[in-house]
Amino acid sequence: MQYQTKILSSEDIAVAAELIRQGECVAFPTETVYGLGANALAEQAVAKIFAAKGRPADNPLIVHLYDRRQLADVISKWPREAEKLMVAFWPGPLTLVLPKSDAVPAMVTGGLDTVAVRIPDHPLALALLKAAGVPVAAPSANISGRPSPTRASHVLHDLGGRIPAIVDGGETGWGLESTVLDCTVQPIKLLRPGAVTLEQLRRHVFVETDRGTRQHNDAAPPSPGMKYRHYSPEARVIVVEGKHIQREIRQQLAHFRRQGTTAVVLAFSENKTAYGDAATMDMGSRGDLKVAASRLYHLLRKADHLGYQAVLVEGLPETDLGQAIMNRLRKAAAKVVKT
Ligand code: TXA
Ligand code: MG
Questions:
Q1: Which residue's CA is the nearest one to ligand 1's atom 31?
Q2: What is the secondary structure of 185-208 as a DSSP string?
Q3: pLDDT tens, position by position, 217-242
Q4: Which end of the chain has less neighbouring CB within 10 Å, N or C?
């Protein structure tokens, strides 16, 4: 289907809500990244999300609500621990996987008997969800495999002509997707690190991670989306981690220069002068990973826009937000170099 994609503003929420009620999909800002939303209870509407994104049918979608009173429409039961998390983190960047209700079409959940739900913390998202009056299934509003969109212009670049409208709410806050937890198992399990950190979650409930175990067997990934290559720009992404990051990046730069490959370094502000006259893009200070998180996808897209063939990224410690940032970088990367 070809559309003349309209850019809507906060004044046009009623227009966007009407499109959703009519079974169309609309991109809208959340506090994490832009989502591509459609009525979660209408299979034909949900099918349009998969078509617009080119998303594999077995990768399930997150259902967005504006109020916990809508939960009973989409899930069949929720354990007390899940309730504790809802109280602590909603509205906010935390997605809970729970047993689904019969009303949720299999297409939303990729055939699973569970459904992922969250209440986003963004005034335009909440206004749209309320005006639409239905639960809204919404993955990130990018072409499948590309970096998630943090600006309306990113959505337009990927999905222009493929969707009827984008609600422009400026830059999203976090710039990184929600944390996804499986609340159907005991203990609760981390499926995707995100804007809410493990440290924050563990103040409320015990959350297990499968770090250290998953690499050693090839069991089915618990979250279907985790098996796909993700978040990748056209440029080849190389992540460098360990003790000698800058030395290694300088060597890689020299190598690329000999090959005639154009490269840019994603560097922390403190390290920008470490690469001589090579092109760099600023990830903010090492001391404030929130800045790195909010810029990451934009910088990966910008590298493509400027025509770089390679992006060398300084790895960061995997604590707090660093866990989610490194998770995305590893998936985006063609190569991870340990020094
Ligand atoms: O911040 C976010 O989460 C954004 C905004 C728009 O809300 N959405 C987002 O959606 O990142 P998406 O589709 O790009 O990622 C959803 C992730 C995927 O890894 C998917 O496999 C997982 O959640 N997921 C969804 N439903 C699931 C389920 N029933 N069981 C396990 N994993 C599920
Ligand atoms: Mg996505």
A1: 223
A2: SSSEEEEE--SS-HHHHTTTS-EE
A3: 444 556 666 666 678 999 999 999 99
A4: N
